[in-house]
Amino acid sequence: MYDLAAGFATLFSDPEALFFVFAGAFVGIVFGALPGLTASAAIAMLLPLSFFLGALPALAFLYVIGKSGRYGGSIAAILFNTPGTAASAATMLDGYPMAQRGEAGKALRIATIASVVGDLCGELILIFGAVYIASYTKIFGPAEYFSIYAMAFVVIGSVVGKSVLKGIISTLCGALAAMIGLDIISNTPRLTLGIAQLEEGLAIVPLLTGLFVVSEVIIQAEKGLQAKMGKIETDQPRSESADYMTWAEFRHCLPVILRSSVIGSIIGIIPGLGSSVACFVAYGEEKRRSKHPEKWGTGLVEGIAAPESANNAVSGPSMIPLLTLGIPGSTIAAILIGLFLVHGIPVGPTIFDTPYSRSLIFALFASGLLGIVAYGAIGYWFGPFIGRTIALLPPRLLYPFILLTALAAAYSGRSSILDVLVALVFGVIGYGMRRAGFSVAAFIIAFVLARSMEETFRQSLLISDNGMLIFLTEPVSLGFLLLGASVTIYRSVNAWRRRA
Amino acid sequence: MPILTHVAKTDLAAAAVCALIGGFFAVQSWWIPIDPHATVSSRVVPLFISFSVMALGLLLGCGAILRNARGTEPSPLLPGHGFHDANFRQVMVIVGCGAVYVATFWAVNFLVANALALLVTLFAFGNRKWSVVFALSLSGAVIYQIIFMRFMILDDSVGALIDASALSNIFSAY
User: Fold this and answer.
1) Is A190 helix (H, G, I), strand (E, B) or coil?
2) Cβ separation of B40 and A427 shorter than 8 Å?
3) Would you tell me the crossing angle of helices A440-463 and A417-436 to the nearest 10 degrees?
């Protein structure tokens, strides 16, 4: 508690960080509410800007965008019947029918309250869980770390999509992209095709903008910009109760919100499983528990509360693998790794050891809590207004600017035209991956992890007397390898049974 | 053999691409110079990953053929999955817009690249009101120039073919 109080003190003594917490809350909501664009896309475009900020403002900005972006998706889901993010797909099922009944204001406010409660639960689990777990994991050596990375690779690949095989191929392709550049130990150029500029390796900004933004612009253009923006319930008669949640409704929803927050938090800790899974699991579970499951999908308040609290509860716990093991549990955590390294902060359990990084992390936790309150307040009072304003923006004018911003952001990372080309190429690759059922999130997470994984693999063999057996003779290492294998086998058998 | 479903065709195409990528990078990895004294050479991990991509790609292809033969393919495809409803012309148009941006950036500079790329992208997205298209392209390019070159102080390099720095300096020079 003392650390958290010190974190708040650090945050409130830094006006720049405070500004970026509120800016992040607003930007995330707007990007999340734009159909097709996700918090990851917003972070990809704004990542270069954060390089010019101090460590706390930069991290707080992107971290809060990640949170508010998940919430912002509910605005598009409720008002336009188009999920702003995949995490809001389940919200659409009951949110849009409520909007059609003239209760869009109420639906948005339920989504806001559920998101805030879910996110707070997840954030508290992160704050108190991460330090506790990190005290155990900081004694791990390279062999244990290699096994953890290997486990993360196969677990993320297995759970991230419907096909285990395509998920694992996605992670391997991300790892292959990370191999481009100079070898970390011998400085030998690898897979550079003789292009000198590639010796520095592929930068994360063009990859992110390509995979998340350019590919989305291509998809939107391909659809002929049929986003259903503008279909709002404005012609419906409205009453006072149509815009606000009643006390009885809140009491009825509270157990749903709390149960779904727990579901979301548990799912958030598992690397690779994200908000999109959490929202459907929570929705399904609450529908199963309901006395009137047949009414779900017709515009029930619980149908909004369950997925929204679950998808936001994922946010905090998804940082636990990052802070305790150095493994990004989500795309946003993967991006944050890059930012930590830019500011010279080593990621993993040792982050809590040095006074500077410890105070920074607790200030980041404080930023997260303040960010939740900020996006909650913005969403509660201005959510309907933001939604209606976005509906006025013609997508045919909006998407060209999004494309150009993405390409300019790709350039801004290293001032390299080659990076712009890389973003464009990965835009096409991302489009193909999404169409063919591969996972761009798994690709990015593996891209971030692969070099560390290779380094620990080679370090382990350097110190080993038994060669590769070191990974099997160390009990913790063996445990993680078995865990990875078990999850992969379980998922594969499940997928096979579904088909049979 | 039964007629291939669209899912099977998509998976087979993906398998072929994986095999090609894996094969290409396996060859590239093989050419990485090695240090004879190193415990693990520089080529081991890239080679392992390349072969794994190739092997899993082949497995994906075999799985697609087997499932197709047994008739256990999941169908119908959801919108946005598979290429049955893809509009490749529109994809190529957007890629073309990006290519215009890269080429103009290389040949001239950031400002002109933004103006020209915005112009063609706005047109490609169906905007036909030329006054709006021109106004947005020019004002957008100037805003990008000010944000990225004046405030973020990025390298506003001179084009390889045309030096338009006199124009861009109007908006970004201190």
Assistant:
1) strand
2) no
3) 110
Nearest to A255 by CA among A323, A309, A312: A309
Across the strands, what pairs with A181?
A190
Residue A358 class from Cβ within 10 Å (0-12 exposed, 13-18 middle, 19+ buried)? middle
- Of B10, B40, B136, nearest to A458 by CB-CB distance is B40
Q: Which amino acid is at A389?
A: T
Question: Which two three-digit tokens encode residue A464?
Answer: 């080993």
CA separation for the pair A176, B95 (Å, rounded)? 24
Best A222, A431, A434, A492 member to test B by mutation, with max B CBs in 10 Å, is A222
A357-to-A329, A449, B60 alpha-carbon distances in Å: 20, 21, 44
Cα dihedral A44, A48, A49, A55 sign: positive
Pairing of strands A181-182, A189-190: antiparallel
Placement of tokens 């009491």 in the chain: A251
Angstrom distance (rounded) from CA A307 to CA A295:
16
pLDDT tens sequence across A414-452 = 889 999 999 999 999 999 998 888 988 889 888 988 888
Its pTM stands at 0.84
A423: closest CA among A203, A179, A182, A174? A203
> What are the DSSP E strand ranges found in A14-77?
none
Whether residue A265 contacts residue A314, with contact meaning beta carbons closer than 8 Å, is answered with yes
Task: Tell me the per-residue pLDDT of A221-240, one tens digit each, with 9 for 90 and over.
Answer: 887 755 444 455 445 555 55
Q: What is the ipTM of this complex?
A: 0.92
Tokens of B112: 């002109």
* Max Cα distance, chain B (Å): 70
Among B59, B60, B171, smallest CA distance to B112 is for B171
Tell me if B32 and A188 make a contact (CB, 8 A cut-off): yes
- Tokens representing residue A151 in the block: 């486990």
Residue in this structure with the two tokens 């712009």, named with its chain if needed: A420
Closest chain B residue to A218 measured between Cα atoms? B91
